[in-house]
Design brief:
74 residues; mainly alpha; 74% helix
Length: 74
């Protein structure tokens, strides 16, 4: 990850005060939460894609055809 961008969120003042008192760095918490959410969504998409192609993989002729199509897209 080379470049960085800034994201912001509004939170209640009381929460900010508590975070400061507990020495919680919001940037670290936000970064970890966003990384986890992205990882989770990518996994969900991968599982959905696998479910979509599963019927094709049970038919040898369709599987060969699918593999050839994927190779030709490269």
């Amino acid at each position: 990850m080379g470049k960085h961008v800034t994201v912001s969120a509004k939170i209640p003042k009381e929460l900010r005060d508590e975070m400061r008192a507990l020495k919680i760095r919001p940037s670290e918490v936000i970064r970890r939460a966003l990384e986890e959410e992205v990882r989770k969504k990518k996994l969900e998409k991968l599982l959905k894609d696998l479910e979509d192609i599963r019927p094709l993989l049970t038919k040898p002729k369709e599987t060969v055809k699918l593999i050839r199509e994927i190779r030709n897209e490269r």
